[in-house]
Amino acid sequence: MISITNLEKTYGDRTLFADVSAQLNAGQRYGLVGANGSGKTTLLNILTGNLDASAGKVSLPRRLRLGVLRQDQFLYEDQKILHVALMGHQELWQVMVDKEKLLANAENHFDADRFSELEDLVQRYDGYSAEAGAAMILEGLGLPAEIHYEPLSTLSGGFKLRVLLAQVLAGDPDALLLDEPTNHLDILSIRWLETFLRDFVGPVVVISHDHRFLDNVCTDILDVDYQTVTEYSGNYTEFMLAKQRERDRREKEIAKREMEIAHHQKFVDRFRAKASKARQAQSKVRMIEKKADELVELPASSRRYSTFKFAQKRDSGREVLKLKGITKAFDDNEVLHGVDLVLQRGDRMAIMGPNGIGKSTLLKIIMGDLAADEGEVEWGYETHPGYFAQDHKEQFERPHRTAEAWIWDTCPEQSIGFVRGHMAMMLFSGDDVEKRLESLSGGEAARLVFSKLAIARPNVLVLDEPTNHLDLESIEALVEGLKSFPGTLIIVSHD
Ligand SMILES: Nc1ncnc2c1ncn2[C@@H]1O[C@H](COP(=O)(O)OP(=O)(O)OP(=O)(O)O)[C@@H](O)[C@H]1O
Ligand SMILES: [Mg+2]
């Protein structure tokens, strides 16, 4: 249905992937996996036609409707929820927007011909039932009719994502391309999505770092690694076994060749000096050269471990944080009612619960980014909190700047060596430090924000879903970093 031929993408002298060929068929669900920054989102953008490949091509049936969920999520903040869903049907949405404009300007000038033309188009696209259909999908996703005309910005991260999913589904797609759909979703919504995808008839390509989700959904895995994309059939667990076996086999093969070469080399060294055997040594040299040529070097895997290291400048006082009767409502929806809490130095608190229950709201209130309706937040003596927000990309105000400049701004008194050292721990090495903020992948952006956090050396870490976007290696490294952090920890996570 979708075919990919000899696809290649490079940035400067860096090859993300080359020689990629694959055929994506209906009824198959492909998990697109790989390390942070390996090129998953890039591949998806090439499939959707939003980005040009460096070589090769992608062919799609001409009338194929693609349903695309992007990793960059919160773009429609001021739009009404139902409208965001309707935008999934692009042609219809454009007509509706044009009609709205024409009506808004009707007092000065009313173009009756154009109006009836637009009306015809609405009919043709079955506009009125599309609206009802979008509303139904929203309800199915747990968004009741009463809120369909509220702006998207009134929703929690998990619910925003459901609206974007509704947008994808409302467009009645023939194929689905989803970039990390489970970030921000609670367990129940993830289970809902799994069932939905299993019932979908067209091909599905889904990027995720969530193994359980991939195991439950995928029939095939596309692995972005070793500067190419390799297809494996089966779910994630099967893929991991197969990949390890394949690598072991190739490494053994190479080890065997290397031993042979070493053996012949010894002979050459020993007899080169002796004239009588010189001719024999010559032929060995040629043989060694030939073998060495055959010895394909394995390209390095893009899976790498970062180092999360959180040191605190100094201890905080014994009592770290006290919440007294925190209450918060959005209009008539009271999300927090009388939260009381005392945290002592060294406590490690996890905040859990379904989407929309008020976890991020509580953290924002704690951090002073949002005012409570009632109640008090009291930070203890010598507390220095460091905050990792759910929408952490909002900190990248000037997206043209480089990652290094952004970090250096937070500690201008430090040397460049200090800045680069910290960035290297988060796997920004060499030219990576010069990357612009806007071109960072989801996981790279998260790692950069963690660099900044580590440099500030806080004694209280306040983390809102820190594992979203991170690949498995980074999550493990984060866990290690948090285990050895001596301070106090407040963490929201679905993991
Ligand atoms: N315009 C650009 N110039 C240079 N490098 C770029 C540009 N755009 C993206 N990149 C780099 O290409 C690599 C692949 O990015 P991509 O977003 O595809 O990664 P990803 O596999 O989706 O990672 P993640 O799991 O973190 O989302 C990253 O290292 C990114 O920094
Ligand atoms: Mg990505």
From TrEMBL:
Residues 2-252, 321-494 form the ABC transporter domain. Pfam families: ABC_tran (PF00005), ABC_tran_Xtn (PF12848). Keywords: ATP-binding, Nucleotide-binding, Repeat. GO terms for molecular function: ATP binding; ATP hydrolysis activity. Signal peptide: none annotated. SUPFAM superfamilies: P-loop containing nucleoside triphosphate hydrolases. InterPro entries: AAA+_ATPase, ABC_tran_Xtn, ABC_transporter-like_ATP-bd, ABC_transporter-like_CS, ABCF, P-loop_NTPase. Gene3D superfamilies: P-loop containing nucleotide triphosphate hydrolases (3.40.50.300). This is ABC transporter domain-containing protein. It comes from marine metagenome.
